[in-house]
What we know:
Number of strands of chain B: 8
Distance between the termini of chain B: 19 Å
Structural class of chain B: alpha/beta
Structural class of chain C: alpha/beta
Strand content of chain B: 25-35%
Oligomer: heterotrimer
CATH architecture of the largest domain in chain C: 3-Layer(aba) Sandwich
Order of helices and strands of chain B: HEHEHEEHEEEE
CATH architecture of the domain at 45-89 and 97-176 in chain B: 3-Layer(aba) Sandwich
Strand order of the largest sheet of chain C: 7-6-5-8-9
CATH superfamily of the largest domain in chain C: Aspartate/ornithine carbamoyltransferase
Order of helices and strands of chain C: HEHEHEHEHEHEEHEHHEHHH
Low-confidence stretches of chain C: 1-9, 328-340
Low-confidence stretches of chain B: none
Shape of chain B: globular
CATH topology of the largest domain in chain C: Rossmann fold
Mean pLDDT of chain B: 88
Number of strands of chain C: 9
CATH class of the largest domain in chain C: Alpha Beta
CATH class of the domain at 45-89 and 97-176 in chain B: Alpha Beta
Strand content of chain C: 5-15%
Helix content of chain C: 25-40%
Number of helices of chain C: 12
Strand order of the largest sheet of chain B: 3-2-4-5-6
Helix content of chain B: 25-40%
Largest sheet of chain B: 5 strands, parallel
Radius of gyration of chain B: 16 Å
Distance between the termini of chain C: 21 Å
Amino acid sequence: MSAKASQSDAPGRRQGRQGPAGSQELLIRGGTVVDEHAERRSDVLVRDGVIAQVAPDLSASTGARVLDAGGALVTPGLVDLHVHLRQPGAEEAETVESGSRAAARGGFTAVVAMPNTDPPIDCAAVVEEVLALAQTALCRVVPAGAITVGRAGERLAPIGELAGLGVRLFTDDGNGVQDAGVMRRALEYASGLGVTLAQHCELSSLSDGGVMHEGVWSSRLGVPAVPAEAEELMLSRDVALARLTGARVHFLHLSTERSVSMVAAAKAEGLPVTAEVTPHHLSLTDAELVGFDPLYKVSPPLRSSEDVAALRAGCAEGVIDAVASDHAPHPPEKKETTLAAASPGMVGLETALAVTLGALTDGTAMSRRQVVGLMSWQPARIAGLHRAQGGDQGGPIAPGAPANLCVFDPDERWEVDPARLASRSRNTPFAGRTVCGRVRHTVFAGEPVVIDGEAQR
Amino acid sequence: MAERERRLTPPRGGVFVPRVQVLSPEDVQRALVRIAHEIVERNHGLSDTVVIGLQTGGVPLAQRIGAILEDVEGMAVPVGMLDVAFYRDDIGIRPVLPEAVTDIPGDLAGALVVLVDDVLFTGRTVRAALNALADYGRARAVQLAVMVDRGHRELPIRPDYVGKNMPTRLDEQVDVSLDGVVLGDVVPR
Amino acid sequence: MSADAADHARLGRHLLAVADLGAEGIEEVLRVADAFVEVGRRQIPKVPALRGRTVVMLFAEESTRTRLSFETAARRLSADVLTLPMASSSMKKGESLRDTVETVAAMGVDGLVVRHPDAGAPYQIAQWVEASVVNAGDGWHEHPTQALLDCYTVRQVLAERAGRDPASVGMECFAGLRVAVVGDVRHSRVARSEIWALAALGAEVTVVAPASLLPTTLQGWPVAAVSHDLDAVLGTVDVCYLLRLQLERGAEAFLPSPREYAAGYGLTARRASRLKDGALVMHPGPMNRGVEIADEVANLPQSTVLRQVANGVAVRMAVLFILLGAGSSATELPEQDELLRAVGE
Lengths: 457, 189, 345
């Protein structure tokens, strides 16, 4: 993909996927290049938004920018299937721009924006609004559309019209589609359009009023709780509907052991299902709620250590296809209240890589390359953004490919400081924790949007 | 009060190390007998008299004085005990918790109260005791009997009956019981 | 009391849960409560211990009895008491809980007594203020002072039965004591506090309830046995503790009807006659007469309900005194001679 940018373009403005004005040559030097095919010590030269050369000991022309990747991995830019950018409607928590900056700092060059905005992304006008906002973002922002109008679970949204605008993923996330009949019709309709429906599996009749996982801890602490079955029953239903309709289904944020085994069984049967998991569900359990701290309140809730172990194993065995952050920014007043009244969710774009590396490479047999795959080329495919699908994400890192890259040091330890997050919101329970794995540089369409951990705009 | 002193010395408790025995058990008994006689003499008898020991050091002394008074005058004198934990004005992080029971015999209205304590030091415990007594009725008069007056008063409190005047340094400690009076130091644990 | 000063620090800055107290913490409160029971018998049942301190009642859930009990306790300690009925305050207009609490705290507050329908509320509040926080009941989680006053009552009654002064009795009366906690354990903060307190003191607790009123799992609970059959357990226990059926919190959704509950789990006169001689019948109040306890049973001598209420004030005085009763709010350890002079007279 070649990019032509005229000299008169202001820095930061882009048309489509072209590089910034007079884009410099960019040399990423001294790193280990890791993509779907191979892992090798190599430099990467980027010119005009495209990878020009991949070989050891490259030299750049004068005036080229050099990014040091010594001791670091150079991978395809990460892709997050599940972020809440809150715009339109809740800009005090996050905007498309601030969220994209957080994404870029987290090593992401593309994110899928969830449609539970206000108004929701259930019509062309809002899709276009988000796409317009995405023009100045620091990463690719692809809106997901709602499955039903208003995410109310009753009437189908204009899925075809939105697909025509480039929307590939549809979900009512925040809620699951409660009615089996509605979900069936949606799947049948979607299967004809080549788009994917994604489900937030939660049966509200079982989860209503619940605030944390139903188990040993909720019982001791006397907190109304959500049983694993609230997720598993809907997941099981949708596996059956996928079988019935032949449509692709993607399961958002799996949280239970049985969910993992049901997805495994569905895949073994050859059904077109995929699944994602969040970094926090791979690393935190319901025991964290012992202090009633709303920072640990998420939906689906943090579950037991057996569930965490099963989710990790699911990643190692290929049952789970992607890690997605479910980045959910909230202003302070939504968290500075009782556990029951607090809004669920945590920000996660900037900690996703480190937390995931920590959860998956410690103790399982997973390699760093497999973890990178879970966060780049695999989610790229699910989002329809992979190069092989005509997109520009997920690699491989080879001459001619769009320059969407992440350079990170898998061994660098750092302390999570909420005050230094690029996100507008600060709601992370990892505050004060030391994690391992830090993004050094992020290159988006040939532009170095993050250098040495600092966003460039 | 020596017990409490001992207990509260930073860091969170110290040990009383005795140095010199100032009064033997017989000396203590003699002093108590003298004090008992002084009480009867000063008050021209024992009518309406109530003896109240301050927890914890003053209680055994008060009980002994009560027994002596009964011997001397041939009539039983009511003896009670008072814990002033709830009336203290201490500066400190934690409150001083009551160590023992308060048991005041009857209503003190019109009574002549003889407060008994083991050591008189700054006067603050006695001030707290006067406060506490007021809640049991308006006494006719309150007199103070102590086994040892070690000086360093911070309030205008003076004893009516003293076993022994014993000037001390601030960093010393006095331990009083029916087994004698000992001067010593407090050493951190 | 053995004590050197270090032993006094059993209660930290707050009282949020009995589960955090341990046997020593519970004993500390009960010992101090002994002294306050004596204060309560005086003509003027008041001491100046908390003079100049301000205690605020933050009750986001209606409760006249508990609130009055705490208010009485604070006033008898000479503290100034303010009541903020949060249910009707600006909280409803969308002011955040934190804002409400910080506004109140800014007026200079030493103690906050908090009751809230959401479990964990006192924990959040404790993060936002310098004051000491006392949990007066948070959702289904805990009601620590209820358990403390109930333990106090048990010790008091057992001591009197043995002809001893309650203040002279230690915690040994709880060792091996067989207690049945009967009723809606699932939704009961009193149950959680009670079970943790009694078990910490060495009692053997049996939980008796219909399956739908038990928590999802009792794993990790210090419970000796679980039963669905009250009649089988009745004759074996020394204390029968009856929980309220939380009708106003929708407990009847978990049961066919209060009548069916009463038939299976209510302490009827017939059942009461099968209790061991000297067994205590306890209830945290207010009673649903005719549901968990029959009218005539509530008035029997072995029912301790009125005593529990009376002891509640003394126990709450003890808690407030331990948490708030230091002199000025000093934040450093005083110098040695300052302390010596302050306490040794």
